[in-house]
TrEMBL record:
It comes from Natrialba hulunbeirensis JCM 10989. InterPro entries: Epimerase_deHydtase, Lipid_A_modif_metabolic_enz, NAD(P)-bd_dom_sf. This is NAD-dependent epimerase/dehydratase. Residues 49-61 have a biased composition (Polar residues). Gene3D superfamilies: NAD(P)-binding Rossmann-like Domain, UDP-galactose 4-epimerase, domain 1. Residues 11-280 form the NAD-dependent epimerase/dehydratase domain. Residues 353-362 have a biased composition (Low complexity). Residues 71-88 have a biased composition (Acidic residues).
Length: 391
């Protein structure tokens, strides 16, 4: 099955400097006029470094917004001083450095677009528990601005929802019709957004698709709030203890970012709009199995250790992926073992070629460890599993 071709469109990717957003931009930018709106609070410009004219033949420009006062600076500059003419690609990439909650930045980034991939979010469940209103401002209030802007532009919106909408699923695999009982502010915000998207379709005839991501992983997932795979990989590479939270028997459905991108492309072209779809493999892996898989793939001598379970952790999660298969024609392609192997191989190449990115990873690792320690200190007593409230 091939991925749908998206060509010659004007596309906005909110959060395009982030983990999933940057992979979407990478897929789209050679053939479309792509705008990225990102405040780079958790994303990074390095994530978009593939888009240099020499790499893609694309034109790309930096659109600097004075986002602190909402004013604009009309200066546009080529990222490396060339205009990138060359091969058969005909896309462009414009980066708008601004916040989705800033209406001027949003208007400017969305002007004339016919398709919006809304990826910008505060993705940390833990942070949403610590500061629910703050995460609500981004994940819901600002997301409504994006939906309203899409109405202005008459643009389709494909947006990032989450398996967090289900909370503790009643049965596995979990289908889109399952009870939605989110256990964290993050899950509540994603559920509200997911429902708004469908109501915007019904009420205003806006073509929307909500994609409920399960546990996405892949290259560029890094930083203190990244997922368990990037944490374990980093620990294994450093021959440090691999830290399992709880007994390790909890399970997840890990989906590779390249499959997440393909799901987005299907959602961008489907006629089956006004719907929400699970994006997962339908397979589940325990955290213990994952730790061993990663240790073996890296060839590490890390011990596997256990610490307190995470407050609010979900016990099991696995997607029923049949609706996306039936209605979007989407199937995942990357199995967990090969996905992890490719991460290990890619990291080896990167280490050989870039000491600065190694330094960056080390800094991010340090930042992550500090964050984990801080949370361990803040929450010395783990909640009992039956009282857990976070995904
Ligand atoms: C993830 C997403 C979340 C999404 C949800 C949907 C990330 C960071 N979070 O949450 O945005 O809503 O899937 O299903 O991708 N663990 C350890 N040791 C570690 C880190 C984690 O044992 O060092 C365990 C956790 O306790 C948890 C499991 O691994 O049981 C997965 O954790 P994590 O990768 O943070 O993802 P989720 O909490 O499932």
């Amino acid at each position: 099955m091939t991925s749908p071709a998206i060509r010659d469109r004007t596309v906005l990717v909110t959060g395009g400097g982030g983990f999933i957003g940057s992979h979407l931009v990478e897929a789209l930018a050679p053939y479309n006029d792509v705008r990225v709106l990102d405040n780079f609070s958790t994303g990074s410009r390095d994530n978009l470094s593939f888009a240099s004219p020499s790499a893609t033949g694309s034109q790309w420009a930096e659109d600097t917004l004075a986002s602190t006062d909402g004013g604009t600076d009309d200066t546009e500059s080529d990222a490396d001083g060339t205009d990138g003419e060359g091969d058969d690609s005909n896309g462009s990439l414009t980066i708008v450095d601004g916040d989705i909650s800033d209406p001027m930045a949003l208007q400017r980034a969305a002007r004339g677009v016919d398709l919006i991939f809304h990826q910008a979010a505060l993705v940390s469940v833990t942070e949403s528990v610590d500061a629910p209103r703050r995460s609500n401002e981004t994940n819901l209030d600002a997301s409504l601005l994006v939906l309203d802007q899409a109405r202005q532009e008459d643009a389709r919106v494909v947006l990032a929802s989450s398996a967090a909408v289900y909370g503790h699923p009643d049965e596995l695999p979990v289908s889109e019709t399952a009870t939605t009982e989110p256990t964290s502010p993050y899950g509540i915000q994603k559920l509200a957004l997911d429902q708004y998207a469908r109501r915007y379709h019904d009420l205003y005839d806006l073509p929307t698709v909500a994609l409920r991501y399960f546990n996405a992983y892949g290259p560029r997932q890094q930083g203190p709030y990244s997922g368990v795979i990037s944490t374990f990989l980093e620990q294994a590479r450093a021959d440090e203890p691999i830290t399992i939270e709880g007994d390790g028997e909890q399970t997840r459905d890990f989906v590779h970012v390249s499959d997440v991108v393909r799901a987005n492309l299907h959602a961008a072209t489907t006629d089956a709009v006004g719907e929400a779809y699970n994006v997962g493999t339908g397979e589940r892996t325990s955290i213990r199995e994952l730790a061993e898989l990663i240790r073996d793939a890296v060839g590490s001598s890390s011990p596997i250790v256990h610490r307190e379970p995470r407050s609010g952790d979900i016990r099991h999660s696995r997607a029923d992926a049949s609706k996306a298969s039936r209605e979007l024609g989407f199937e995942t392609r990357v199995g967990l073992e090969s996905g992890i192997r490719s991460l290990v191989t890619a990291a080896g190449g990167e280490q050989a070629s870039s000491s600065s990115s190694t330094q960056q990873r080390e800094n991010q690792g340090r930042e992550r460890r500090q964050h984990q320690q801080q949370h361990q200190q803040e929450r010395p007593l783990a909640a009992r599993p039956d009282r857990q409230s976070q995904d």
